[in-house]
Write a sequence for this structure.
């Protein structure tokens, strides 16, 4: 056939350069009849003119000018810039304008994307010209077929539009007429009527596809307006195929606006005429309900007239609608029906925004079951192949209802897919998420509102918005309406219904957690034994679901757990079995259970309280969806309330998070746009957190980290500081399927890289190759693991791709079934057989479907035919198969369209027609055959990857390229499928098997960068604006609302427990009343309770036993620093402990954010033990340490087994602590006198800490004060950067001035930490009134006391009790008064001590006559240790248990003791192994069994404290497994535990100095008279401390006339005088030799003979405390101590001589290390003993007992003078 002389032209233009530079930069021209073309590029008008000259020969002889969009685009520029061209006046053919007429069902022809030609080359105008010619030929073919088969329709279009080029079938010529003979008006009207007849109706003569009234007006009047004829042609073309997936091209709307107007007038407006079949059917809600949902009528809804029908009618009319219906009340129908109806009317898209993937799936599955094929969902769980298909279908118009998460509004592919669609409506399911007062507010919903407003402005029309919720309060509804009014100018028509459903009956039962499983079993029997139906048990955690399900199965129930962790096939099986009734119960996690839609659920049980009444009603609403009665039971345990408060707190962000994110945005902006610039930032959440999370309340390991960053950005946006727009997702090369990890590492190793680069690449490759197969790997994960910047990572990934280790091929995982029941192979074989037989039946049943006419297919009839052929099937299977066949695309053409268009006709009837009229039965079956062969080929390959594994879910990994290779290697398919069509057909085959359930497509291991686009506000950047507390208030209000919702849920449960009707009333009022009125009614007088994030029970546990002042300190939420001055027994430690408990359990502050500092380790352990008793395992992560311990942790040092030499002594240790404190302070602050703003070191180390509590603040030293100051960030300029500090102390108990402590630091605290006034705790809960009065009299004379105006008093609860306490009635002699025993003065010190001891014993004997007194209840205190020696003798001689607190310098550090180090060694032996907590406790008890009598109690305490910090799992926790501890961490814990301690407090009478008793209390206290003659303030405070240790009785001994404090005791004290004669045996002295001064440290291994050393060590290893030792006096005055005949210890030359009649026994063991030995003494120590290297040895410490009668005067040796204490 001759080719027409057509000149095709295409210009490439840059509109942005118009007016500045020449806009045209490329030109292409093509003459198909000459098969010649040209393409030229240029930069100027001269270049353009030259190009025109070069193409002049193509214009010669041309009869027509053609282009795609040439009229509105190319020709405009040609006439402007080259008006002289003769061919500008040629007749014009615009292929763009012909497309909607030629391809009404698919105006997006295979060569058109949106309205542009798809180039085979980038920016190639010549290629576009050639594609335009191909398109034109297809158009001519289509018009030729139309003229032949539908001549009337062809004539109408030529009349309205003009001549249509077409193939003349007879001559096979292309006919391009210049003029056309139009139809007469009468004939035209007739032809149009024929085109608009609804052929789907039985009597099509009376039924039109449009409104009859408006059609008549059109034919009478509008038809005569020739200006609208082209628009009318387009409207008629679209209407001819209307009813679903046909799309009116957007450019038609823009260039021919009358088209959309005519369609809308003809199809969207109810004329009200009963004779109009279209309006009475298509625009009638009742008719549409029957059509789509097969329901006879709508439901009524309490609260407004019209029920569901009124809402549907509003939606069908395109009105903005806000509706509240109860859960299960049919709200889904209220938006689905208008969406389906409007899709049928105009082909537009309804976008449904839903918060949960499970809810989306539930909605979609429900529509599919009803036969709706035009719905889809788009969320992050859909894998890439299926997602691509859905996006295509959206753009092509195949999707009418799209369910999305709000996050999709930032997704560029989604935005692109809907860009050219008419939006019929935006629907917000669960619309309460829009409101910040809603229980599930999500910031992305606010962006969705903004997006809709912007979309409306850009498109020029506002699509109707519909908001639906079951659980919205008046405040929430007001907020929703305000948002849409302010953002989009939308006002809603409101339908506010009642939230209650008449068929649901609610019940609350109080059940402890450990009894819930049994109660659930009882409820199931109660509700299900007598009726059909099932039950859903809702739980909060996956482990709970599994545990409850296992229990119920054991009880005989058909039950399974159901949560997101299940494999795909397992999940589907459970859901199917539950819906069919094979399973009666599922135990589901809350969010996941919402996706289970079973009509006959008769019982819903909530095993745990929910976070809001809204959530509870939504989840309970799963019951009774068939409208029959059902029960909803809540099992209430008060502890669940606190769990909900904790969950809520975990999801919150804090002010510092917003400040940190804003600061990082500033850094990123500067990096991207320069120091003074402001523009777009593209970053991921992980990139924002990098180097920032140290300053935030969460870190990058937090599983909610990305969400929290996005939340922070959303609130920064609300503050006007930035805008966040579309996301930008980039895919990077992933692992190659051709290599395993080892092969990849080998490639790196053999590469020419430095060691550093090899390590870096190796690290990346290990992460990538070890990543899970079925989900993407974020670049954030790689950045966090490698510490690279994104730029660095991008370069490394590129290099690894060049090495062939990573590949750009699409990775995917595919789940197969290889079990015997539903194996994928068997399923595919059956499906392929079914499909082949189905094709034969289709051609018989619907022969004219290829003519573009709707054909009715009876699924029942098809099933009968297939059964006759021997294949058992059902209508559901046929329906599913037809939906898959409908998506088949041509294997011969690059078409984007499918095969069939389907409509559900109800009653197992499908309406079917071909989508592309140019297709034939033969061509579509050819495509299906290729797809079947492809599927079989692929499945065979995939099954081979399972390596014979037989199970329900088998996951295999593959690549798209690998699958394409399989097709290329297949002998038959490689010939039948062109290379460029292999991947499309492959995707088609995969989707076919996926939809038919043969396989499950899953995400592959892809490396993704999900980045956000952020634009900081220029003014905010330039003004260096900060995010302030004022900005944070809206977020605080939101969190306050969340807290209120938990309180309401608890109140409902408690009220319903008392009276169910009260619970119902509360529920009704909650959704009916304004919040302020609701609070006033149901929480009257309890407003303060609502401010707490804890249950009343928890508050009682923490604050119920506190007095008002204690409580004020404990519950403070102001964030201010506080100083508490507390008297003895007033509960200082109690305040600290309960304050920490309040922070943990009420304010839900992370335990890791709290530091407690104490003066000594004993106090630290006491704080920890009390914390564990109060809050349990929550206390584990609280940092409770001494000041010195904190310094050591900051510096990363500890006293290990090889610290500095023993003989450096206590002085070294004290100096070392001071030095460490100074170093730690410097580390934190770089010197507190430097610029505090540059204090980055402190920020880095202290990141995460927020509260610091200091106990015994009066005992702080200069070094400690500076350390606390640095910890607290005192000099930071920003208040938010400082820690909140609470200091508790008593200036009256500052007794360590000799160590550098001073009350000055208390005064400084008020100034430095801006404390207006201290809090005073003055109630003494410890001592009797007599003891308190006496102590007050002693201390009241102190100058500069801080508590002068706040005297210590007895606590109010005891004021009515006798002043002498219980002893006032028991002891007739002293009646509970303070007793002062005066003794005659003796000048001899030994005598004075002797008779004081007798006085104590005498008074004890007297007291025991009137009451029971345990030895542990007694403390004898003195100024100096020596005064206590007679009492020590008395205890030992009478076997009275006692504890003697030795002088500080003579104590053995616990970390040096043999017993402790044996435990450390036992842990070291487990190097490389992991121990459970229970295993380590066993290890501790084994060491306790090896140790002496004083150790078991200490080891037991050690074990208890460890297990408190690291509890063993129990109950439901077993599934998670036990915590496992490495040996190194256990050893570190042990050393931190013992710290610098040096005494084990044993049971019995306490004998010690007043200093040693600090922080202790005893029922009976005796204070001996020694060295109390001094009148210094420190001694007064020391005596005061001694007095205030007493609980019940206080006895003071006076035997010196100069006692400074006895005379201050009030006159009502009981005074008596006693006389005693000295008792010689009490003068027996018990000396533990000093390690550093009295012992030869290395004697036991210093021997000339190895055998002797071995013998000594063997004997020493078996010794225990109190074992006897013989003393052997040496000629040089020293002594050896022998066990049997083996010497095991020897005195040093410094030790005083030991009398001959002295005896000895083992007092303690310490350990000496080789590293402790100084030069030159190391030479005397052997390197080995036997075959074992000698690294350490025991040092036995003897106790020497010297009976009375010897003169122990001063001994001189080697110039040293020393004597044993007298």
């Amino acid at each position: 056939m001759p080719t027409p002389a057509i000149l095709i032209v295409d210009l490439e233009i840059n509109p942005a350069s118009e007016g500045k530079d020449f806009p045209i930069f490329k030109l292409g021209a093509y003459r198909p009849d000459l098969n010649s073309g040209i393409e030229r590029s240029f930069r100027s008008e001269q270049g353009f003119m030259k190009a025109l000259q070069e193409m002049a020969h193509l214009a010669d002889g041309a009869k027509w000018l053609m282009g795609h969009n040439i009229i509105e685009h190319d020709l405009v520029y040609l006439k402007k810039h080259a008006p002289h061209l003769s061919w500008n006046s040629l007749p014009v053919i615009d292929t763009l304008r012909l497309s909607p007429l030629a391809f009404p069902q698919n105006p997006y022809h295979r060569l058109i994307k949106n309205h542009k030609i798809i180039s085979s080359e980038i920016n190639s105008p010549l290629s576009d010209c050639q594609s335009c010619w191909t398109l034109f030929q297809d158009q001519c073919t289509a018009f030729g077929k139309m003229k032949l088969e539908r001549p009337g329709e062809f004539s109408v279009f030529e009349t309205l539009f003009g001549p249509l080029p077409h193939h003349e079938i007879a001559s096979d010529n292309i006919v391009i007429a210049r003029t056309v003979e139009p139809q007469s008006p009468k004939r035209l009207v007739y032809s149009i009527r024929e085109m608009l007849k609804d052929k789907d109706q039985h009597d099509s003569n009376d039924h039109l596809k449009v409104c009859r009234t408006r059609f008549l007006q059109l034919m009478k009047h509008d038809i005569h307006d020739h200006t609208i004829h082209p628009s009318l042609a387009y409207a008629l073309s679209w209407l001819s195929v209307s009813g679903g997936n046909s799309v009116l091209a957007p450019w038609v709307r823009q260039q021919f606006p009358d088209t959309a107007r005519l369609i809308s007038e003809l199809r969207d407006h109810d004329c009200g005429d009963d004779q109009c079949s279209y309006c009475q059917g298509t625009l009638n809600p009742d008719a549409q309900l029957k059509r789509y949902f097969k329901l006879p009528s709508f439901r009524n809804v309490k609260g407004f007239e019209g029920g569901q029908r009124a809402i549907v009618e509003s939606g069908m009319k395109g009105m903005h609608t806000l509706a509240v219906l109860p859960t299960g009340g049919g709200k889904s129908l209220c938006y689905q029906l208008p969406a389906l109806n409007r899709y049928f009317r105009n082909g537009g898209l309804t976008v449904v925004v839903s918060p949960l993937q499970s809810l989306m799936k539930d909605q979609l599955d429900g529509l599919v079951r009803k036969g709706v094929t035009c719905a889809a969902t788009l969320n992050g769980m859909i894998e890439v192949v299926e997602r691509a298909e859905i996006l295509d279908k959206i753009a092509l118009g195949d999707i009418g209802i799209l369910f999305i998460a709000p996050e999709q509004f930032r997704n560029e592919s989604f935005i692109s897919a809907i860009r050219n669609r008419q939006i019929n409506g935006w629907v917000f399911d669960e619309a309460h998420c829009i409101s910040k007062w809603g229980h599930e507010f999500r910031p992305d919903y606010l962006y969705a509102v903004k997006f809709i407003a912007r979309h409306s402005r850009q498109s020029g029309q506002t699509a109707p918005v519909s908001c639906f919720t079951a659980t919205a309060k008046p405040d929430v509804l007001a907020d929703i309406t305000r948002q849409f009014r302010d953002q989009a100018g939308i006002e809603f028509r409101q339908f506010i219904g009642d939230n209650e459903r008449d068929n649901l009956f609610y019940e609350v039962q109080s059940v402890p957690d450990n009894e819930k499983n049994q109660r659930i079993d009882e409820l199931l029997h109660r509700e299900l034994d007598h009726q059909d139906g099932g039950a859903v048990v809702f739980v909060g955690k996956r482990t709970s679901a599994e545990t409850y399900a296992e229990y119920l199965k054991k009880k005989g129930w058909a039950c399974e757990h159901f949560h997101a962790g299940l494999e795909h096939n397992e999940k589907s099986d459970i859901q199917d079995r539950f819906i069919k009734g094979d399973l009666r119960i599922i135990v589901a996690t809350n969010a996941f259970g919402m996706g289970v839609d079973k009509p006959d659920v008769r019982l819903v049980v909530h095993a745990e309280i929910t976070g809001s009444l809204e959530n509870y009603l939504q989840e309970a609403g799963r019951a009774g969806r068939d409208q029959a009665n059902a029960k909803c039971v809540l099992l209430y345990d008060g502890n669940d309330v606190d769990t909900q408060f904790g969950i809520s707190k975990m999801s919150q962000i804090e002010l510092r998070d917003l400040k940190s994110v804003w600061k990082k945005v500033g850094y990123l902006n500067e990096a991207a746009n320069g120091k003074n610039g402001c523009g777009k930032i593209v970053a991921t959440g992980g990139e924002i957190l990098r180097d920032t999370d140290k300053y935030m309340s969460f870190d990058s390991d937090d599983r909610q980290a990305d969400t929290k960053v996005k939340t922070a950005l959303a609130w920064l946006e609300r503050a006007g500081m930035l805008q966040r727009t579309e996301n930008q997702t980039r895919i990077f090369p992933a692992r190659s399927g051709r290599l395993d990890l080892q092969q990849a590492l080998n490639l790196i190793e053999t590469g020419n890289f430095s060691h550093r680069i090899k390590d870096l690449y190796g690290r990346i490759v290990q992460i990538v190759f070890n990543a899970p197969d079925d989900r993407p790997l974020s670049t954030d994960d790689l950045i966090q693991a490698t510490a690279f910047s994104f730029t660095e990572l991008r370069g490394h990934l590129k290099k690894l791709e060049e090495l062939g280790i990573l590949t750009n091929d699409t990775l995917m995982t595919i789940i197969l079934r290889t079990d015997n029941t539903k194996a994928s192979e068997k399923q595919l074989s059956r499906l392929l057989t079914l499909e082949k037989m189905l094709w034969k039946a289709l051609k018989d049943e619907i022969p004219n479907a290829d003519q573009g006419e709707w054909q009715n297919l009876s699924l029942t009839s098809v099933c009968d035919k297939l059964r006759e052929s021997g294949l058992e099937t059902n209508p559901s299977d046929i329906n599913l198969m037809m939906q898959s066949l409908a998506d088949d695309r041509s294997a011969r053409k690059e078409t984007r369209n499918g095969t069939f268009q389907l409509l559900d006709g109800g009653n197992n009837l499908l309406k079917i027609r071909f989508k592309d009229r140019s297709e034939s039965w033969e061509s579509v079956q050819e495509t299906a055959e290729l797809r079947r062969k492809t599927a079989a080929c692929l499945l065979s390959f995939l099954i081979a990857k399972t390596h014979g594994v037989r199970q329900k879910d088998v996951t295999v990994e593959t690549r798209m390229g690998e699958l394409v290779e399989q097709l290329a290697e297949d002998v038959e398919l490689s010939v039948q499928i062109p290379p460029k069509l292999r991947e499309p057909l492959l995707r088609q085959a995969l989707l076919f098997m996926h939809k038919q359930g043969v396989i499950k497509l899953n995400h592959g291991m892809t490396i993704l960068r999900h980045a956000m686009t952020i634009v900081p506000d220029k003014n905010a950047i330039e003004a260096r604006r900060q995010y302030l507390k004022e900005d944070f208030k809206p977020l605080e209000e939101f969190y306050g609302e969340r807290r209120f919702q938990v309180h309401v849920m608890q109140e409902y449960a408690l009220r319903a427990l008392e009276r169910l009707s009260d619970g119902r009333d509360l529920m009704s009022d909650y959704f009916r009343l304004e919040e302020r009125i609701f609070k006033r009614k149901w929480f009257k007088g309890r407003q303060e309770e609502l401010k707490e994030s804890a249950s009343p029970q928890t508050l009682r546990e923490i604050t119920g036993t506190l007095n008002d002042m204690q409580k004020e300190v404990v519950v403070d939420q102001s964030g201010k620093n506080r100083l508490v001055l507390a008297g003895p027994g007033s509960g200082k430690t109690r305040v600290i402990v309960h304050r920490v408990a309040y922070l943990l359990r009420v304010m839900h502050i992370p335990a890791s954010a709290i530091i407690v500092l104490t003066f000594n380790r004993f106090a630290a352990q006491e704080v920890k033990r009390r914390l564990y008793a109060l809050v349990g395992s929550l206390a584990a992560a609280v940092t409770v340490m001494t000041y010195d311990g904190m310094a050591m942790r900051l510096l990363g040092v500890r006293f290990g087994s090889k610290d500095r030499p023993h003989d450096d002594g206590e002085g070294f240790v004290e100096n070392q602590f001071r030095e460490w404190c100074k170093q730690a302070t410097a580390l934190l602050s770089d010197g507190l006198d430097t610029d505090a703003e540059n204090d980055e070191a402190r920020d880095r180390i202290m990141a995460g800490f927020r509260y610091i509590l200091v106990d015994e603040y009066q005992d702080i030293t200069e070094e400690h004060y500076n350390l606390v100051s640095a910890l607290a960030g005192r000099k930071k300029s920003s208040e938010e950067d400082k820690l909140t500090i609470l200091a508790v102390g008593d200036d009256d108990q500052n007794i360590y001035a000799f160590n550098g402590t001073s009350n000055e630091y208390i005064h400084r605290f008020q100034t430095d930490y801006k404390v207006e006034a201290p809090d005073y705790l003055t109630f003494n809960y410890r001592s009797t009134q007599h003891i308190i009065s006496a102590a007050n009299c002693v201390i009241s004379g102190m100058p500069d006391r801080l508590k002068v105006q706040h005297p210590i008093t007895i606590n109010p609860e005891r004021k009515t009790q006798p002043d002498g306490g219980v002893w006032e009635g028991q002891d007739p002699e002293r009646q509970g008064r303070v007793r002062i025993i005066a003794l005659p003065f003796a000048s001899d010190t030994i005598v004075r001590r002797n008779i004081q001891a007798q006085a104590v014993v005498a008074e004890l004997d007297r007291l025991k006559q009137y009451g029971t007194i345990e030895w542990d209840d007694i403390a004898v205190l003195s100024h100096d240790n020596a005064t206590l020696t007679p009492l020590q003798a008395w205890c030992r001689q009478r076997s009275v248990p006692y504890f003697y607190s030795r002088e500080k310098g003579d104590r053995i550090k616990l970390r040096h003791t043999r017993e402790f180090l044996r435990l450390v060694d036992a842990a070291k032996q487990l190097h490389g192994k992991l121990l459970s907590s229970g295993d380590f406790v066993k290890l501790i008890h084994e060491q306790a069994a090896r140790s002496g009598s004083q150790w078991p109690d200490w080891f037991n305490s050690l074990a208890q404290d460890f297990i408190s910090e690291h509890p063993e799992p129990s109950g439901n926790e077993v599934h998670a497994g036990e915590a496992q501890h490495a040996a190194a961490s256990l050893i570190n814990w042990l050393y931190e535990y013992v710290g610098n301690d040096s005494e084990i407090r044993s049971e019995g009478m306490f004998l010690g100095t007043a200093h040693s008793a600090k922080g202790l209390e005893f029922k009976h206290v005796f204070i001996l008279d020694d060295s109390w003659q001094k009148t210094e303030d420190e001694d007064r405070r020391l005596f005061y401390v001694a007095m205030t240790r007493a609980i019940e009785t206080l006895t003071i001994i006076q035997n010196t006339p100069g006692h400074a404090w006895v005379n201050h005791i009030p006159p009502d004290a009981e005074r008596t005088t006693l006389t005693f004669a000295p008792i010689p045996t009490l003068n027996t002295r018990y000396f533990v030799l000093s390690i550093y001064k009295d012992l030869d440290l290395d004697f036991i291994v210093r021997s000339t003979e190895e055998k002797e050393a071995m013998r000594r060590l063997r004997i020493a290893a078996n010794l225990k405390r109190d074992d006897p030792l013989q003393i052997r006096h040496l000629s040089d005055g020293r002594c050896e101590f022998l066990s049997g005949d083996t010497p095991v210890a020897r005195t040093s030359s410094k030790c005083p001589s030991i009398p001959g009649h002295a005896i000895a026994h083992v007092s303690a063991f310490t350990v000496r290390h080789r590293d402790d030995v100084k030069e030159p003494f190391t030479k005397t120590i052997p390197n080995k003993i036997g075959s074992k290297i000698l690294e350490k040895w025991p040092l036995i410490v003897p106790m020497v007992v010297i009976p009375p009668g010897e003169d122990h005067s001063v001994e001189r040796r080697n110039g040293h003078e020393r004597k044993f204490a007298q």
